[in-house]
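Supplementary Note 2. Why include the ligand at all?

Several targets in our set were suspected to adopt different conformations when bound, so apo predictions alone were not considered sufficient. For every target with a known small-molecule partner we therefore ran a joint prediction. The input for BIS(adenosine)-5'-pentaphosphate is given below.
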Amino acid sequence: MALNLIFLGPPGAGKGTLAVRAKELINAPHISTGNIFREAIAAKTDLGLKVKAIIDSGGLVDDETTIALIKERLAQKDASNGYILDGFPRTTAQAEALSGFSSVTKAINFDATDDVVLKRLGGRRVCRKCGFNWHKTFNPPKNENICDKCGGDIYTRDDDKAEAVQKRLAVYREQTAPLIDWYKKAGLLCEINANSGVEETLIAFKNIFNL
Ligand code: AP5
Ligand code: MG
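The joint prediction is reproduced in token form.
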């Protein structure tokens, strides 16, 4: 059965890290709005130029742009047999729009404490080429500036600077956290304790779907 999954949770909860592992298990694409925006910024497309300042400061891109992007992405063939949406929806308007063009199987909430997310974001290092999320302490590459997976350069995201992190957490609490209740009321919510290591989190994910 196709699994149409949403990964909910605060910045730094490990949504992207787990999605990279989980997509192999369910054979479905990992669709991260954050990754799509960062690729557009790197390629200096119209979309990238429009969203760069918003993303660097930790704000949200407008609903209209983001909804149109995901609607188009989910219409592509590879998403017809399931998907993992990482970072979408992030507002009630986005959740409502999504329910109009796709049928969600489960929304998984990655529950992590502030203390844990701050440590994860403080040490995150990202590959410019393949987007893999390394961590200075929890999962360091052999050479701190080169990705072990693809040889790409590794950098620190502008929105992982302290000021932008505080803004992202505030935006999360105000605009995205209410979706936990929204999906609970829709009978679609599952919770994962995301405070432990990647392997434990992966086991919790597998248990939800008997994988
Ligand atoms: P996005 O890229 O989605 O950022 P985010 O939601 O803030 O989430 P993060 O990527 O920071 O966290 P994550 O949970 O993926 O953690 P990760 O796995 O990397 O969005 C960026 C921006 O784009 C937004 O601020 C907004 O401007 C815009 N945007 C995106 N979607 C939008 C939307 N729908 N509407 C409007 N605007 C939108 O893990 C973090 C670190 O911890 C890594 O270093 C990793 O190695 C490490 N780690 C992960 N899991 C573990 C673990 N279990 N144990 C130890 N270390 C771990
Ligand atoms: Mg991410």
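The pocket of BIS(adenosine)-5'-pentaphosphate (ligand 1) is lined by residues 9, 11-17, 32-34, 37, 54-55, 58-61, 66, 87-90, 94, 120, 124, 133-135, 138-139, 159, 168, 197-198, 201 (CB under 6 Å). The longest helix spans residues 162-176. Comparable summaries for the other entries are listed in the accompanying table.
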